[in-house]
Amino acid sequence: MAGFRETPRQKMIGMMYLVLTALLALNVSVQVLEAFVTVNESMEATNESFSQKIDAVYNSFEQQNLLNPARVGPYYEKAIQVQNLSNEIIDYLTEMNISAMAHAEGVSIEEAKVLSLRDAASKDKYDRTTNFYINEGRATEIKNKIEKYKEEVLNVLEPVDREKLSIGLDTEGPFYNRNKQKETWEMHNFYHSILAANTTIINKIINEVQNAEYDIINLLFSSIDAESYKFDAIDAKVIPSSSFVFLGDTYEAEILVAAYDTKSNPEVLFVDGADKVTTQNLASARKIKGKDGSVKISVPATSEGTKRYAGSIMVPDPSGQMRSYNFRHEYIVGRPSVTVSATKMNVFYTGVDNPVSISVSGMADTKIEPRISIGEIRRSGTDWIVRVPDGVQKAVVSVTADGKSMGSNEFRIKRVPDPTATIANITSGNIEKNRLLAANAIIPTMPADFEFDLTFRITSFRFVAVRSGDIFERQSSSNQFTDEMRTYVQNARRGDRVWLEDIYATGPDGGTRKLGTINLTLQ
């Protein structure tokens, strides 16, 4: 080609090609920059959500410590040490991000605190940030802080427990540049790295600190003496001397704090009409199985007057042996009164069937006539179904029986809560590639305390991943991975991060909900 002479037309085409290539390169640069900002915003949201999850563990720890400080105290004190160490480095990293923003933008610290990365004019510049982190030694300072944090939090644990953890925060490498040459942790993360990338990296380190903190405090929590009862719920309980008070009488009750384990399933031996369980009435005792730490009994009220019952509740101790505790109680059966209750929860949800139980003592079901102030109520077998519309806050159910008014009950009206987006039964954290590929689909999961059997359908989501600074982003119009997404996961390396975001789901009421981001690290 050395002797080839281009015509003026060919020269013009070549020049246009060069211009087009430059424009395309500029467009890719803008897209990559936008992706960094988006990933950083997602990372900040994930860190905030993770912080709430960690706080929940500390709250449970504090609760156990209040119940049994002698056994729980030593572990709780270690958990507080981990909390203080983690808060210290997270505060330090947060301030480092603010200082880098102020340095790059040429503004004060106070101005930098309220300036978002998306609005930063210098988010695509690396000269000032390289000087800030590399030339002024802050990258090395960060590395030293990370290594000190790892050493101190691991020293909180016993040697045998340290071997159970892999807390990440790798500063040893090896790390390689794009030419496959070894480089230091500082150069790998902060040399010629734009402000958008620096901010995202710092927030990633914060996330790794949170992961380490979460794993350590969970290990400490699980180490509480196995012989101790562990309770996860505390309620104030009222034990009345009588469940019915006549006009002119005095109401008496004991008020106490009760702790119980919602994960246990106790059993009750129940004897109706007795003052205590004896060998004589044991044969007629009714066994009732409990759920969520308590047992519910049901006794038909067939006649008026004072009624009594006795029994024994049996719960497993930490060693697995069943222990029994006796009880007795009295109650009064009075004249007919109306009872209206939502069988699922004490609310009505819009757009779904709400089961309702309505009974009037001494009255046949066929004589009961309920009405609702808004929406509709219809019979379903022996119970009733209520449907209420959007845009209202309460509904009143009034009941007549045999032509007489029996009273009314007021119910709150709420929207069905959002489900949680999960894949392979997790919402974030480490996951093996094979497990992720086998799952292949995002599943919406309703909150554990929501008792309605509802189904949401994922209609779309966005797959975002970062590898060696390159952004991979694809859209799915269902809940399943596309072929491109599966290929990316198959070819991904250990430690690569994947975000499933902008997840939209359609509920039984036809409305669309945006669900939370799934943040994964491939193993």
Description:
This protein is an alpha+beta fold and 523 residues long. The protein folds into four domains: 23-222; 233-333, Sandwich (Immunoglobulin-like), CATH 2.60.40; 338-414, Immunoglobulins (Immunoglobulin-like); 420-522, no CATH class. 35% of the residues lie in helices and 29% in strands. It has ten helices and 24 strands. The chain has helices spanning 8-67, 69-105, 109-113, 127-135, 138-156, 159-162, 185-190, 195-222, 433-439, 483-491; strands at residues 175-176, 182-183, 233-240, 253-260, 267-272, 286-289, 305-316, 322-333, 338-342, 347-349, 354-360, 368-372, 376-380, 383-387, 394-401, 404-414, 420-422, 428-431, 443-445, 457-467, 470-476, 497-506, 512-515, 518-522. Strands 18, 20, 21, 22, 23 and 24 form a six-stranded mixed β-sheet that branches. A four-stranded antiparallel β-sheet has the order 6-5-7-8, with no helix packed on it. The protein has a four-stranded antiparallel β-sheet with strand order 9-11-14-13, with no helix packed on it. Strand 20 and strand 21 (470-476) form a beta hairpin. Helix 1 (8-67) packs antiparallel against helix 2 (69-105), helix 2 (69-105) packs antiparallel against helix 5 and helix 2 (69-105) packs antiparallel against helix 8 (195-222). The radius of gyration is 32 Å and the shape is globular. It starts with 7 loop residues before the first helix and ends with a strand. Residues 19-28 and 244-249 have low confidence and may be disordered.
